[in-house]
Fold this protein.
Amino acid sequence: MEARMTRSRMVAALVAVAALLVLASACFETSVEDGIDDSRSISVTGTGEVRAESDIATVNTGVEVRADTVAAARAGAAEASNAIIAALRAHGVEESDVRTVDFYVYPEYHYRDETPRVTGYVFSNTVQVTVRDVEGIGELIDAIAVAGGDAVRFGGISFAHADPGALSEEARELAIADARAKAEQLAELTGVTLGSIITVTETSWAAPLVGPGPRAEFAADDSFGTSIQPGTSAVTVTVQAAWEIEDESD
């Protein structure tokens, strides 16, 4: 009985070894068929950056009015908002480049007593304006400020390039060229021959503000206009690329 069990164990072990050999053979054949040997490749990172003058701006502006009643606050905000919209039209801003991004009305309370007491109401309306004439953006901001009066509010300004896709294409070309140059140098330094490219992955991002970025200078004297510096926009593309090392025996 013991001899029979020993033989059974030996047979099972042989079957397991055979299965492993078949699996290893299959993996080897797959690797050969794919034609890629990761151990014989050169992997590098390439970067390309393109900068261009900012030619489009986004301005968040609006009005905020406080009054004793909701109706009075709404009326004051509507008057200031209409004046701002008129100023935008007068400076060539298209209707499609203006959209509402925030709107609210809420009561203000006096909390000194045990029971809160409403002291007034706040009515606010904010729009996002796309400005395509960045050279005249300082004059536009001045016009908005004059039109909105004490009710006007500014929520920030940002600059970008109107065609980031074109910048990305150029940056991508630079990134690939940078990666190829590095791979060729590594191949030369190590005495191998660079083959076909195996893989490429890309990471890209846009930096709308480069260097000092936009700057706004509000003069105390109304006779001077607001100075805005658009600066430049940048797009950076980074690629991870791998090349085969050619087999010298071929």
Summary: The chain is about 35% helix and 40% strand.
